[in-house]
Amino acid sequence: MSIKTLTRTTLFVSTALVLTACGGGGGGGDATGAGPNDTGGQSLTYSYPADNQFEVAPPSPVVLRFTSHVDLTDAQNAITLHEGDADGPAVSVTPTPSPDNLGVVLNPDDDLKPDTHYTVVINDLKLTDGTAADRNVRFTTRALDRGPKSERI
Is the peptide bond before 49 cis (omega within 30 degrees of 0)? Predict the structure, then answer.
């Protein structure tokens, strides 16, 4: 066996051993362990509008998707839409469940105001596999391209 072949073989075996020692198991998890606010990994996985999104169309609904099933009554009690920050006035919405019950669609009873900041507040939302992590999603609607001059681009 040549030195070149031996070196390559040794390098290959060493790399394979290192990768074997580091990988697999799937036991990852977070290094901080469970704490008093541990949510069991339950959370919001998708939102439209996305957090900090700009130029959202005023007639848009708010779509939220979670890691496990959500009951509509629990969603109505734990999810609110506010004009401005989380302590701003609440916006009246009609929530509807997604077909797979992993999400909720918030349909504002009136179109959202143009060129306005909004905050979706998710607080103590019970899901079938635990409580979702509290979360705020902020977005801004776009200005109108027609209508009163004060509300147009």
Answer: yes
